[in-house]
Amino acid sequence: MATTERRPILLDFEKPLAELESRILQIRALAEDNDVDVSAQIQQLESRAQQLRQEIFTSLTPAQRIQVARHPRRPSTLDYIQAISDEWIELHGDRRSGKDDLALVGGIARFHGHSVVMLGHQKGRDTKDNVARNFGMASPGGYRKAMRLMEHANRFKMPIFTFIDTPGAWAGLEAEQLGQGEAIAYNLREMFRLDSPIICTVIGEGGSGGALGIGVGDRLIMFEHSVYTVASPEACAAILWKDASRASQAAEALKITAWDLKNLGILDHLLPEPIGGAHANPIKAAEGLETALLENLEALLEISPEQRRQERYRKFRQIGVFSEAA
């Protein structure tokens, strides 16, 4: 992961914290220029800044969590793969279209002595890269590539790790012509029959069928500030109220945060993030993900493939089940 110093990208709710940190820097500079000892005052302000940062990131609204999940510098699939794997060989193409979808990447890796297949959505770091990767919105060829890699993993008894980070599948005319719905539906069906352990992690934005296309697994892990939703709050607000500006209200109603999904019994493992979000300390975020993946993988390897398939099926059949009071 890149560690070069860059100008921070501030979210709206981070501005009070940024102003306080800027004030600390100004006071420190003035003190050095005038040879004045203000260490006690600076320590007090830094303590206040730390407290404010804690308060902000422990009380985010669903709409604010979406902003964190979409942060341009949030670690991507390739960032995490490079951080947690000992070896990584990227594989390309779906063997059908003759193209390689850059919005969905995958390959073979070594993970704590295990040969595994890792794949996931990949967003860009700047405008040019985002255009090349279609902002993480995979085409039918991307989902067929993912299925090809998962079938390879199943054939050679390799565990599968998927990393979800997309606003949704590509909804262009060409995608529909190439069978976007069929490609995603095929993945949903086939992932249920695989013998390999499958661990899915929402690392940022899990949107609609684009997320589900690689989201059928034995375990679902979500980072604390990631989101998982049937439709983006903006799309939901436009559909329900014909007003996309009511996205914050839609975000509340959709129950899209990791905490919501944990309470609903959909999420298996909620992964805490460093204060300030995963982009504030990517190395620490990757270490937490590596530990969670290893723990869940070891547990899944202790049970038979048949039992894993049965539990996977039961897990998804239970989603949405409810009881009505008399």
Automatic annotation (TrEMBL):
EC number in record: 2.1.3.15
Pathway participation: Lipid metabolism; malonyl-CoA biosynthesis; malonyl-CoA from acetyl-CoA: step 1/1
Localisation: Cytoplasm
PROSITE patterns documented for this protein: COA_CT_CTER (PS50989)
UniProt keyword list: ATP-binding, Cytoplasm, Fatty acid biosynthesis, Fatty acid metabolism, Ligase, Lipid biosynthesis, Lipid metabolism, Nucleotide-binding, Transferase
The species this protein was found in: Adonisia turfae CCMR0081
Catalytic activity entry: N(6)-carboxybiotinyl-L-lysyl-[protein] + acetyl-CoA = N(6)-biotinyl-L-lysyl-[protein] + malonyl-CoA
NCBIfam families membership: accA (TIGR00513), AccA_sub (NF041504), PRK05724.1 (NF004344)
Pfam family of the protein (one): ACCA
Name of the protein: Acetyl-coenzyme A carboxylase carboxyl transferase subunit alpha
Alphabetical GO biological process terms: fatty acid biosynthetic process; malonyl-CoA biosynthetic process
Sequence similarity: Belongs to the AccA family.
Domain CoA carboxyltransferase C-terminal: 44-299
Gene Ontology molecular-function annotations: acetyl-CoA carboxylase activity; ATP binding; carboxyl- or carbamoyltransferase activity
Subunit structure: Acetyl-CoA carboxylase is a heterohexamer composed of biotin carboxyl carrier protein (AccB), biotin carboxylase (AccC) and two subunits each of ACCase subunit alpha (AccA) and ACCase subunit beta (AccD).
Role description: Component of the acetyl coenzyme A carboxylase (ACC) complex. First, biotin carboxylase catalyzes the carboxylation of biotin on its carrier protein (BCCP) and then the CO(2) group is transferred by the carboxyltransferase to acetyl-CoA to form malonyl-CoA.
InterPro entries: Acetyl_CoA_COase_a_su (IPR001095), ClpP/crotonase-like_dom_sf (IPR029045), COA_CT_C (IPR011763)
GO cellular component: acetyl-CoA carboxylase complex
